[in-house]
Specification:
- GO terms for molecular function: NADH dehydrogenase (quinone) (non-electrogenic) activity.
- Helix 9 packs antiparallel against helix 10.
- The strands form 7 sheets. An 8-stranded mixed sheet has the order 1-8-7-6-3-2-9-21.
- With 503 residues, it is of the alpha/beta class.
- Helices cover 33% and strands 21% of the residues.
Length: 503
């Protein structure tokens, strides 16, 4: 309860508690009472039909202006890392308390890396969140934004299990500057059964689910009495989507099968196989030569490539548009992303594709003090700029730019709500693509350093590219702690193989 102790230490909170004659040691045992009695109630009215409880009210004179960040992905965490906490208080609202290093997430599914190696706690990225009296992390979802009154309506997140007696509750957070960085969600294209039966690969929990399912199917297929047909179904891993995530997961899975499954599950080694389904060409953003190399390498590794469109998803099989039925035991869905229901519900101008529309400085132009970065945002058509791809490097670059912009605004006296109208914002955001990389398994990878699909540039494939891929991602891991974890995991896997315990 570090945040609770810091909250009580806050001069503004202590003065409010004293004015209400409620400050006593006994009340420290009741977080809900402390929140409801110490935090101010917002002047904004909650949505009709919804009762909101306590609030983190507007900042008072003498307090630092408050930056509220919605989301803990690449964009939001890079912004929090770069924000100047000597001039701002930072409040992060997100359903997860960590950032996921997504380029290495596929490696955790098969035991190449441990899950904690790709998760970086927010408190390590921005220590002020756990140390500063006015900065907080709230485990919650954003439900609504009142831009006129500078208020975000939130709802706490709980496990929701039968043994969890804690029920979600609603609260409000006032802001001086709001950054919407809530990301996007996996696209299902309205296909029946995807959400019910497929597993996405965007969170650590998804990777954990994939690992448990994969190892469960391996053990079930080894039981007496299981028919050959059922073994083939249980051990058929289907990946839908031929982008970098789908290709890298297929490559990791093929390595796992060749180097670990065939040694430790000798009785069923001939039944397990991988199918990658893509409507067009795999890795469509890469150079043609690299695409051909990836296709050949995956085929050599035992991955079956199928060009087709999924029409329906059932609990044990998928149906393609040509009527082909594909039985599966594990289905991983990786077909790109789209706006989340929260982003769709916001009454802000939208960019092509349904993202929140922003100008050249990543501001939402229709309201004051609201910015949007990452996968949930895109340039408005009026800017003349194309919508940037949903890539980690785009989100990270936007977070870094916006942190610098907010720091400049604060130094020029525009940190508080409705005070930045006349502040010089400087140069607008410009994105320069640094290239793309993807692993295809068997110590092979692709490196495409072109700035666009039409541009010319250096492209590499093979073992050297795999070494560059690993080196680049190792240096991009957020903390030295996790870099050490990743390096040790890679070395352990190389020497002893992957762990196959189902925990």
């Amino acid at each position: 309860m570090v945040w609770l102790r810091n909250l009580v230490k806050s001069p503004s909170v202590r003065s409010r508690l004293k004015s209400q004659n409620t400050f006593s040691p006994a009340l420290l045992l009741s977080p809900l009472h402390l929140i409801s009695s110490s935090l101010t109630t917002s002047a904004a009215k909650p949505p009709a039909g919804i009762e909101f409880g306590s609030s983190l009210g507007p900042t008072a004179d003498g307090e630092k202006p408050r930056v509220v960040v919605l989301g803990s992905g690449w964009a939001g965490c890079r912004l929090m890392k770069g924000i100047d906490t000597s001039v701002y208080d930072v409040v992060c609202v997100s359903p997860r308390n960590h950032m996921v290093f997504t380029p290495l997430l596929a490696s955790t599914c098969v035991g190449t890396l441990e899950f904690r190696s790709v998760a970086e706690p927010i408190a390590r990225i921005q220590p002020a969140i756990s140390r500063s009296p006015g900065s907080f992390y709230f485990l919650a979802q954003s439900r609504r934004i009142d831009a006129d009154n500078h208020v975000v309506y939130c709802e706490s997140v709980t496990d929701g299990g039968a043994r969890d007696p804690l029920q979600p509750w609603k609260f409000e957070v006032s802001y001086d500057k709001l950054i919407i960085a809530s990301g996007a969600e996996a696209s299902t294209f309205g296909i029946h059964g995807v959400k019910e039966h497929a597993i996405f690969l965007r969170e650590v929990s998804h990777a954990q689910e994939i690992r448990r399912k994969l190892l469960l199917n391996l053990m079930l297929s080894d039981l007496p009495g299981v028919s050959d047909e059922e073994k083939s179904r249980l051990l058929h891993c289907v990946v839908v989507g031929g982008g970098p995530t789908g290709v890298e997961f297929s490559g990791e899975l093929s390595d796992f099968i060749m180097r670990d499954v065939r040694q430790r599950y000798a009785h069923v080694k001939d039944y397990i196989h991988v199918t990658l389904i893509e409507a067009n060409e795999i890795l469509s953003s890469f150079d043609v030569r690299l695409r051909h190399y990836a296709t050949n390498q995956l085929t050599k590794s035992g991955v079956r490539l199928v060009r087709g469109v999924v029409k329906d998803v059932g609990p044990e099989k998928i149906v393609l548009s040509d009527g082909t039925e594909v039985p599966y035991g594990l289905l991983v869905w990786s077909t790109g992303v789209g706006p989340s229901p929260f982003i769709k519900s916001l009454e802000f101008p939208k960019a092509p594709g349904g993202r929140i529309g922003v100008d050249e400085w990543l501001r939402v132009p229709s309201v004051q003090d609201v910015f949007s970065i990452g996968d949930c945002s895109g340039f408005l058509e009026s800017t003349g700029k194309p919508v940037l791809p949903a890539l980690a490097q785009v989100a990270e670059r936007q977070g870094k730019f916006l942190a610098g912009l907010l720091n400049r605004i604060a130094k020029e006296g525009g940190g508080r709500a409705n005070t930045a109208k006349d502040v010089n914002l400087g140069d607008p955001f410009v994105y320069k693509h640094m290239g793309s990389m993807a692993s295809v398994g068997s110590y092979k990878a692709l490196v495409d350093l072109r700035q666009s699909k039409e541009a010319k540039g250096l492209s590499l494939a093979g073992f050297l590219s795999w070494f560059i891929w690993r080196s680049a991602y190792l240096t991009r891991v957020v903390s030295w702690r996790n870099r050490f974890y990743v390096a040790i995991n890679w070395a352990t896997t190389f020497v002893f193989g992957r762990d196959i315990s189902r925990i």
